[in-house]
């Protein structure tokens, strides 16, 4: 079976992911907050362990150009693999908000626009199971933070998420700068140094030719998307209250 965006394998995989979210939410709907956090601790720890196995599989794949300093868990999707552990163990709601708004968006973009070498490939391969599987896990944990009632969708939380996103980008820019002067000259986690293969990122960097700062329009657009997302999610309940 070959997986490619929007083919039947991809659609079936996404359907299973959604079904898993619905099923877990239903099972834990009457559980206490503590019980939900225990589940998410196991879920996030196992997810990160699977991510490590996936990366080892890429390292062992002779057809994949594996660069250790490029494959660390510092991209937006990958950071959620370990940030979710922190959120679940210490009940950090701002990370849960970040997982819902930024984590879901990042995972969906990866699933819809996979990197070169991760589409039109056999589904039952380390490369496919690892890439699509880990991004689906990021998507799941981001949604579960809300559907399990651990945090909520709100305009305040959307703002907190974008602030946390900007803070993470600043931290990763420091990481990139250190890496570029030591172990890996092309480091660009969170894309703070740009990405020539991405049309939009390249366009923004031509407009603001300063590393990291060129992302300001991206943050603004992302915040607008989060506000629209919040409005659409809250709209049915708002209309319900007006109807009463």
Short description:
The protein is mostly helical and 244 residues long. Helix content is 69%, strand content 2%.
What does this structure look like?
The chain has 244 residues and is an all-alpha fold. 69% of the residues lie in helices and 2% in strands. The chain is built from eight helices and two strands; from the N terminus they run βααααβαααα.
User: In terms of per-residue confidence, which ranges show pLDDT below 50 for 5 or more consecutive residues?
Assistant: none
Which sequence of strands runs across the widest sheet?
Answer: 1-2
Mean pLDDT score, rounded?
A: 94
Q: Please work out how many helical segments DSSP would assign.
A: 8
Computed CA radius of gyration, to the nearest angstrom: 19 Å
Please outline the major beta sheet. 2 strands, antiparallel
Shape: globular
Structural class: mainly alpha
Distance between the termini: 51 Å
**Count of strand segments:** 2
The percentage helix is: 55-70%
Order of helices and strands: EHHHHEHHHH
**Beta fraction of the residues?**
under 5%
Topology of helices and strands:
Blueprint: E1 2-3, H1 8-27, H2 33-60, H3 76-90, H4 93-112, E2 121-122, H5 126-147, H6 155-180, H7 199-207, H8 216-243
Antiparallel strand pairs: 1-2
Helix pairs in contact: 1-5, 2-3, 2-5, 3-4, 3-5, 4-5, 4-6, 6-8
Features:
single chain, about 240 residues, mainly alpha, two-stranded antiparallel ribbon, globular
